[in-house]
Specification:
The chain is an alpha+beta fold. The chain has one domain. It has two helices and two strands, in the order ββαα. A two-stranded antiparallel sheet has the order 1-2. The longest helix has 16 residues. The chain is globular, with a radius of gyration of 12 Å.
Length: 60
């Protein structure tokens, strides 16, 4: 609380609880929002989340 943190992550589970997520693709900001908002948009973030969620399930 009362601070701003910049987290760069490849594992989306690391940033799932962030208030604001920025997706940068090819050097351009392409998506912005909370985890839930970005998943509902069904864009690149949602695709990445799906792939990583599948990896976690198959690794179990």
């Amino acid at each position: 609380r009362g601070r701003t943190s910049l987290i760069i992550a490849h594992r989306l589970s690391t940033i799932r609880g962030a208030h604001r997520i920025l997706l940068i693709k090819n050097g351009q900001l392409t998506e912005e929002g909370s985890h839930d908002e970005l998943v509902k948009k069904k864009g690149d973030y949602a695709d990445l989340w799906s792939v990583q969620a599948g990896e976690r399930i198959s690794a179990a």
